[in-house]
Amino acid sequence: MTTMRELHQKAGNPDLKSWRLIKLVTLAEASLLVSGINPYQYSNLADYNFLDELNSKKPVNWEHVNVMIRALLEAICTHEIKSPMIRILDEQYNNGYEYTDEQARIGIEDMERIVFTKTKIHRDELSKWLRKYGYFDAPQQNTIPVQQVSHQYPEPVQHNNVILLPEPTYTTPALDALYGVIDEFWKNYDPNNNQPPPKQSTVASWIKANYPDIQASDICTYIDKICRHPTAKKGGNTKLNQSNKMKDITPIK
User: Where does the record place the region Disordered (predicted)?
Assistant: First the structure.
């Protein structure tokens, strides 16, 4: 099995350290990162366009990216890898209809319908899966003879193993949901651009739909309060309500 270190060396050891900050990655992003390709080069592409771009440019390790996407799709469908957000394309409608589905309802028969450029996995889940299939270099020991006495010294850590994946972090279903809310609602939120923040009820419904283990309304509310932008603490209708109240005030002459 080719290791991730070997793939990255073949690709020229690109600088992907900034991706350590990202906890949730799409299947496409994960496949590119493992193969030593910066996902920014293929951002905002639909599945078909992504594969067309990849197979046309043929960057180093492009074939491995194709295999990795298929392997991750199979792992999602067989529940070998947990996913907090699975996007499904239903082609029965005109131009296709996308929706989010729970992993408990996903089987191998759904593999061709999963949108791999939008379906996400946690980096810790990816790390465990990669380690299981030998993508990380196994620690080796060097034996150094000194006066016929063998001393064993551990080999230095191969940093290529963690070029995109930091050491696994402690997580819970609630923490996964919290990171998911940040990624879905707040990562690109700009309060200075007259962008209406999501309502608390909208966030709570999204959590329940995407995280089966988090169904209690009070926990959803706490997660929303933790993640909510400081200027959007009251839910998104505050300015509108204040404007409506001002309309009812008759100015004093």
Answer: 233-253
In the chain, the N- to C-terminal Cα span, in Å, equals: 83
For 45: left if phi > 0, alpha if psi spans -120 to 50, otherwise beta; the answer is beta
Both tokens assigned to 165: 């994946």
- For residue 180, give both structure tokens: 């998911």
Domain boundaries, the chain: 4-133, 173-232
User: Which distant-in-sequence residues (6+ apart) come within 8 Å of 143 by Cβ?
Assistant: 150, 151, 152
Strands 24-26 and 120-122, sheet pairing: antiparallel
SS3 92: coil
DSSP E strand boundaries for 59-96? 86-90
Cβ within 8 Å of residue 177, ≥6 positions away: 84, 207, 210, 211, 214, 220, 223
For residue 121, the cross-strand partners are: 25
For 53-80, write each residue's pLDDT tens digit: 999 999 999 999 999 999 999 999 999 9
**Alpha carbon distance 233, 240 (integer Å):** 14
Nearest to 116 by CA among 49, 168, 171: 49
